Amino acid sequence: MSVGRLMVQSNGYNALSFREIGKEVGVSSASIHHHFPTKGDLGAALAQRYTEDGVAAFEQILASSRTVRECIDAYAGIFRAALVNENRMCLVGLMSAEHDDLPDEVRAEVNRFISVNVAWLAEVLSRRKTKASKEAIQHQALAIYAAIEGAQLVARGRGNIALFDQAVAAYRAAGLIP
């Protein structure tokens, strides 16, 4: 699973290969097929675990952060860390770009990841003392998720982490991010 995750984070879902994973971990591709009969099964499992890892990270952020700003900074830090780690992308961000090529079970997990992120961001944003409606908070949460994913994509494409930091600072200055 770790090798498959790194493969997708580096090159996208279409580059996911049972043969290459087998070579990397020293097993036959048939052994991998025993656990994941199809590429879609493997892709869905990767996205599911990635979402679960994200939920655990979000719980840790809430447990250790006192303010909304600290939570948002830690959230952005997760995406920044992928860039620091060999200029990788969010696994689901790359899968989302390949949406039309994904099997239904992978699309479902991609959509779940996005929903989990937006729900968590909305929960964090709801901690502010604001008169914003629940719907407005949901919209801002979706905008923050999309903005952070976009900042990561631009920074990766340019091979320049400073662009990620600049984008996040610009989002904050514009009022998108608290």
From TrEMBL:
<feature type="domain" description="HTH tetR-type">
    <location>
        <begin position="1"/>
        <end position="54"/>
    </location>
</feature>
<keyword id="KW-0804">Transcription</keyword>
<keyword id="KW-0238">DNA-binding</keyword>
<dbReference type="Pfam" id="PF00440">
    <property type="entry name" value="TetR_N"/>
</dbReference>
<dbReference type="GO" id="GO:0003677">
    <property type="term" value="F:DNA binding"/>
</dbReference>
<feature type="DNA-binding region" description="H-T-H motif">
    <location>
        <begin position="17"/>
        <end position="36"/>
    </location>
</feature>
<dbReference type="Pfam" id="PF21993">
    <property type="entry name" value="TetR_C_13_2"/>
</dbReference>
<keyword id="KW-0805">Transcription regulation</keyword>
<protein>
    <submittedName>
        <fullName>Transcriptional regulator, TetR family</fullName>
    </submittedName>
</protein>
<dbReference type="InterPro" id="IPR054156">
    <property type="entry name" value="YxaF_TetR_C"/>
</dbReference>
<dbReference type="InterPro" id="IPR036271">
    <property type="entry name" value="Tet_transcr_reg_TetR-rel_C_sf"/>
</dbReference>
<dbReference type="InterPro" id="IPR009057">
    <property type="entry name" value="Homeodomain-like_sf"/>
</dbReference>
<dbReference type="InterPro" id="IPR001647">
    <property type="entry name" value="HTH_TetR"/>
</dbReference>
